[in-house]
Design brief:
alpha+beta; Helicase, Ruva Protein, domain 3; Tetrahydropterin Synthase, Chain A; 3-stranded antiparallel sheet; 11 helices; elongated
């Protein structure tokens, strides 16, 4: 029997279950709505749908990078408890979603079968599971990555040269330091002016002759808190990230540059 979209919609409205689960239940029931509801209840899917109002703040971040360093993917899968996030079934689902993004991009996650897999696991374990963020990152340079052992923090960085150890060091720096910008040129003019107003208020009692010098020093210090290349290098805080890069021998003989970065912490937008 062919199931009509209106039947699926009506069952969804009554149960809150996903499209794929509703369609399968209607097929099993031969189109009988009440029997389909009973099927969903028996499978625990209606209970999973009711969990949608709960908050899912735990979970995992998963990361994959291609061998040539040109493509990377990130996926965040959320659940309610840390216990569930550490189960094999949850990790396997997160890894499966990561593979989909890596192969086909984030748009592929909207398919019914993906929603069905998430709903099925939620029904099995008895708590809400939801798909968070996903990203396919394809770059012209070389991508380095870092994933913290607890699966809650990940970073990607693109550098101009294929130097895996340098790319990984910078990715670790991004994860640990949480920079807002890559370099000073990216800081919006209004933010610069706001900082200057704060500095002026702080030094208003200083002699005018030295105020500009103090302002420059304060801005330099602020850049070391905002911009990745100005941060103290994680492995040697006597130098900056920019100075670390200058010391690296690049295959092309050109200076090594950072072209972009991504940082995800579980639960952040």
């Amino acid at each position: 029997m062919k199931i009509q979209s209106q039947q699926v919609k009506e069952l969804r409205d009554k149960t809150g279950a996903g499209i794929l689960a509703c369609k399968k239940a209607l097929e099993k029931s031969g189109g009988d709505l009440e029997e389909a509801i009973d099927i969903l209840r028996a499978e625990g899917i209606t209970r999973a749908a009711k969990r949608e109002s709960r908050e899912a703040r735990e979970g995992l971040v998963r990361l994959k990078i291609s061998p040539d360093g040109k493509k990377a993917a990130l996926v965040e899968l959320n659940c309610e408890t840390d216990f569930v996030s550490r189960t094999d079934d949850f990790a396997e689902l997160a890894d499966a979603l990561l593979e989909i993004v890596f192969r086909e991009g984030s748009d592929a996650l909207v398919r019914d079968e993906v929603a069905g897999r998430i709903t099925d696991l939620a029904a099995t374990i008895g708590e809400k599971i939801s798909l968070g963020r996903s990203l396919l990152w394809e770059r012209d340079g070389f991508i380095g990555s870092y994933l913290h052992h607890n699966g809650r923090l990940a970073a990607l960085v693109e550098i101009s040269e294929e130097i895996p150890e340098v790319a990984r060091e910078i990715a670790m720096q991004v994860a640990a330091s949480n920079p807002t910008y890559l370099q000073e040129a990216e800081v919006p003019a209004e933010e610069k002016e706001r900082e200057r107003r704060i500095f002026r208020e702080q030094i208003k009692d200083k002699p005018e002759a030295i105020q500009e010098k103090i302002m420059a020093g304060k801005w330099h210090k602020r850049l070391s808190e905002l911009c990745l290349i100005n941060f103290p290098f994680l492995q040697d805080d006597k130098i900056t990230v920019a100075e670390y890069l200058k010391k690296q021998a690049a295959p092309s003989g050109q200076p090594v540059e950072i072209r972009g970065f991504v940082r995800w912490r579980l639960g952040e937008e």
